[in-house]
Design brief:
Shape: globular
Number of helices: 11
Strand order of the largest sheet: 1-2-3-4-5-6-7-8
Largest sheet: 8 strands, parallel, barrel
Radius of gyration: 17 Å
Distance between the termini: 9 Å
Number of strands: 8
Helix content: 40-55%
């Protein structure tokens, strides 16, 4: 069964736009769990423009499903992971001013750096996933860091899906197979939605987890959170 991790960053964005605590990020996360989500994802950034570091501590103390923290593994973020010890950390090479994640790691260039980070986080009992594109040599380099998983950056798939689904998913199928041969589990995320998710999941039998935020929260504005999570979970039954 493919796990659905709900990214609640957009809930925090809405809260921060007005100040105060409406909507309540913790309550939404707990409701996501109650409605069937297998995990919660957050991506705190240095400027805390959506999820705040204080949110992460509150969530850690209350969540009962898998907690996945994404981010660029620099000073403050590394300290956070050491203290929180989430179930999973996803290493993402975001620039501080990035609007959203838009590229995976160059695991060949940064192999030593990533290897040190993977070893460090594993020492704290945290499962590690590295955010990557579909280049197979790069995935083989990721495996050499001793990471547990890779997360495939799926925006290229989402962008091409409406024109030619088979062509759009081809590189991801190949990348996932290389990851499997290297002993890695495969996560995926970015721009997956109710239209393109089922086909993606059906083509990648080794897919372990998807992390979805923007589209899911947007859909919840129309359908409600409970129905939306149910619909996303249905797309993952393949």
């Amino acid at each position: 069964m493919i796990s659905l991790s709900v990214n609640v960053n957009k809930v925090a964005t809405l809260r921060n736009a007005r100040g105060g605590n409406v909507p309540n990020v913790l309550q939404v996360a707990l409701d996501c769990e109650r409605f069937g989500a297998d995990g919660i994802t957050v991506h705190p950034r240095p400027d805390e423009r959506h999820i705040r570091y204080s949110d992460v501590y509150v969530l850690k103390s209350n969540l009962t499903t898998e907690f996945n923290i994404e981010g660029n593994p620099e000073g403050k973020f590394i300290d956070l992971i050491e203290k929180i010890k989430p179930n999973q950390v996803t290493l993402v090479p975001d620039a501080p001013d990035a609007l959203t994640s838009n590229a995976g790691w160059d695991c060949i260039k940064y192999q030593n750096h990533l290897s040190d980070l993977v070893s460090h986080f594993k020492d704290f009992g945290v499962r590690v996933s590295i955010f990557v594109g579909t280049d197979t040599a790069n995935i083989e380099a990721a495996a050499k860091t001793n990471t547990d998983r890779v997360e495939l950056y799926t925006e290229p798939y989402a962008s091409a899906y409406g024109t030619n689904p088979e062509a759009a998913v081809k590189d991801f199928v190949r990348a996932a197979e290389v990851a499997r041969k290297c002993g890695l589990k495969v996560n995926a995320g970015h721009d997956l939605n109710l239209d393109n998710l089922k086909y993606f999941a059906s083509q990648i039998p080794t897919l372990s987890e998807v992390s979805i935020g923007h589209a899911l929260i947007a859909d919840a504005l129309y359908m409600g959170l409970e129905k939306t999570i149910a619909e996303y979970k249905k797309r993952l039954i393949v």
